[in-house]
C-alpha cells in the first residue's frame, strides 16, 4: 500500500463511520484560528479560494486508494485546513461521486457560507457538517479569531440560505467550550439559530484533544448533556475513537502519519499498536516522543500526540 499526500485513513468517526479523508488544503491553512483547534496554531491565515493542489493530483490519489480495495463508509473532504478554500471544491465532489458510490461529506467551519459559489459547491455533497459555536459576534470572535474580512451576520445568513435549499443531510456541529459558549443564555441563543437553520442532526462536541490554546477547557458532562437536550442533539465523546488505519506498514511511520491530521491519545495509540502486533508499547511511545516535531501534550489528564512536522 502507498502513503499519500492528500488522501488519508480511513479513520474512525462516530458520525461518519470509517471515513476516508481527502485534504485539498495545505497544513493549517484556514480562515479561522480557533482556540480549540486540535491541529495547533493556524500557520497560514487565508481567505483566498484557490486550487491549492491540482485537482487531478487529488483525484489520482483517490483512484490509487480505490484500487487497493480497502473498505470505508464515507469520503470526507476536510483535513488540515478549511476545505471551502479549495476553489474547485464542486469539481472535486463531482469527481468523488463519479468514482465510487459511498456518500461524500464536507466538514466546514461555516466561515465561507456568505459566498454563493461556496454554497453552490456544498450543494453537491451528500452530507455537510458546518460548525456553529456562537450566536453573537463577540463570542464568535473570541472562539474562532477569524480572518478580518469575514462578517459574522453574513455567514449566519448564508448558513440559513444554504439550509433552506440544501437537499442532502445537514449535520450541525457545536463545539462546547467552558466559559465561552456554555452559559444558559448562550445556549438559548444558539438554540434560536438552530431552530432557524433546522439541520437534520446536531452534534455536541467538546475539545477532548489538546487545543491550540491550552487554557481552553471542556464543560462538565452535565453541561454538555444539558446542551444536547436543549439543542436536540447528540453529545460525542471522541475518547472512544479507535480502529485507526494507515497504509504505512511500519508502525512508527503509520503513527506519525495519523498524528499529522488526527492527534491520538494514549489509549488510542496503545490500541492501534496492539492491533499491529507491537509487543513493547512503552518502548514504542518513548521512541515516538523522541521524534522531531512530535508534540506530547497532557490534556484532561491524558497524554496526546500530535505530529507538527511538515
Ligand atoms: S478548528 Fe478547523 S476551522 Fe478552526 S482553526 Fe482549526 S482547521 Fe481552522
Structure commentary:
By secondary structure, this protein is of the alpha/beta class. The chain has one domain: Aldolase class I (TIM Barrel, Alpha-Beta Barrel). It is built from ten helices and 13 strands. Helix 1 runs parallel beside helix 2 (89-99) and helix 2 packs parallel to helix 3. 42% of the residues are buried. The model has no long low-confidence stretch (mean pLDDT 90). Bound molecules: iron/sulfur cluster. Residues 30, 32-34, 37, 39, 42, 81-82, 109 line the site of iron/sulfur cluster.
Give the uncertain stretches in residue-range form.
none
CATH topological fold name: TIM Barrel
Distance between the termini: 22 Å
> How can the largest sheet be summarized?
8 strands, mixed
CATH class membership: Alpha Beta
Q: Level of helix content?
A: 25-40%
Find the count of extended strands (DSSP E, 2+ residues). 13
Structural class: alpha/beta
Which second-level CATH architecture applies? Alpha-Beta Barrel
Shape: globular
Following the backbone from N to C, one meets helices and strands in this order, namely: EEEEHEHEHEHHEHEHEHEHHEE
Structural domain count: 1
Strand content: 15-25%
Mean pLDDT: 90
Task: Give the neighbour order of strands across the main sheet.
Answer: 1-2-5-6-7-8-9-10
The hetero compounds bound to this protein are:
iron/sulfur cluster
Specify the CATH homologous superfamily: Aldolase class I
Which value, in Å, is the CA radius of gyration?
19 Å
Number of helices: 10
Topology record:
Elements: E1 7-13, E2 17-22, E3 29-30, E4 44-45, H1 55-68, E5 74-77, H2 89-99, E6 104-108, H3 116-122, E7 127-130, H4 137-144, H5 152-165, E8 169-175, H6 184-197, E9 201-205, H7 221-231, E10 234-235, H8 251-261, E11 264-265, H9 266-275, H10 281-289, E12 294-299, E13 302-307
Parallel strand pairs: 2-5, 3-4, 5-6, 6-7, 7-8, 8-9, 9-10
Antiparallel strand pairs: 1-2, 11-13, 12-13
Helix pairs in contact: 1-2, 2-3
This protein binds iron/sulfur cluster.
Amino acid at each position: 500500500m502507498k502513503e499519500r499526500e492528500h488522501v488519508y485513513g480511513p479513520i474512525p468517526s462516530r458520525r461518519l463511520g470509517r471515513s476516508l479523508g481527502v485534504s485539498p488544503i495545505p497544513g493549517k491553512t484556514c480562515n479561522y484560528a480557533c482556540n480549540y483547534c486540535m491541529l495547533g496554531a493556524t500557520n497560514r491565515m487565508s481567505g483566498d479560494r484557490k486550487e491549492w493542489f491540482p485537482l487531478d493530483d487529488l483525484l489520482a490519489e483517490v483512484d490509487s486508494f480505490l484500487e487497493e480495495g480497502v473498505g470505508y463508509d464515507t469520503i470526507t473532504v476536510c483535513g488540515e485546513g478549511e476545505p471551502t478554500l479549495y476553489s474547485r471544491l464542486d469539481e472535486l465532489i463531482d469527481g468523488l461521486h463519479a468514482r465510487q458510490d459511498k456518500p461524500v461529506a464536507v466538514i466546514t467551519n461555516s466561515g465561507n457560507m456568505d459566498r454563493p459559489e461556496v454554497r453552490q459547491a456544498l450543494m453537491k455533497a451528500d452530507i455537510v457538517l458546518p460548525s456553529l459555536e456562537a450566536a453573537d459576534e463577540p463570542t464568535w470572535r473570541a472562539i474562532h479569531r477569524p480572518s478580518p474580512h469575514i462578517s459574522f451576520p453574513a455567514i449566519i445568513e448564508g448558513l440559513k440560505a444554504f439550509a433552506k435549499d440544501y437537499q442532502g443531510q445537514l449535520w450541525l456541529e457545536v463545539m462546547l467550550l467552558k466559559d465561552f459558549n456554555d452559559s444558559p443564555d448562550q445556549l438559548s441563543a444558539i438554540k434560536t439559530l438552530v431552530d432557524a437553520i433546522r439541520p437534520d442532526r446536531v452534534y455536541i462536541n467538546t475539545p477532548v484533544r489538546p487545543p491550540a490554546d491550552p487554557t481552553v477547557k471542556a464543560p462538565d458532562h452535565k453541561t454538555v448533556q444539558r446542551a444536547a437536550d436543549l439543542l436536540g442533539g447528540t453529545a460525542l465523546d471522541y475518547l472512544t475513537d479507535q480502529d485507526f488505519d494507515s497504509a504505512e506498514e511500519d508502525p512508527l511511520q503509520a503513527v506519525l502519519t495519523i498524528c499529522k491530521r488526527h492527534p491520538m491519545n494514549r489509549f488510542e495509540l496503545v490500541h492501534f499498536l496492539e492491533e499491529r502486533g507491537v509487543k513493547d508499547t512503552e518502548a514504542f511511545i518513548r521512541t515516538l516522543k523522541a521524534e522531531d516535531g512530535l508534540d506530547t501534550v497532557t490534556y484532561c489528564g491524558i497524554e496526546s500526540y500530535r505530529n507538527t512536522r511538515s
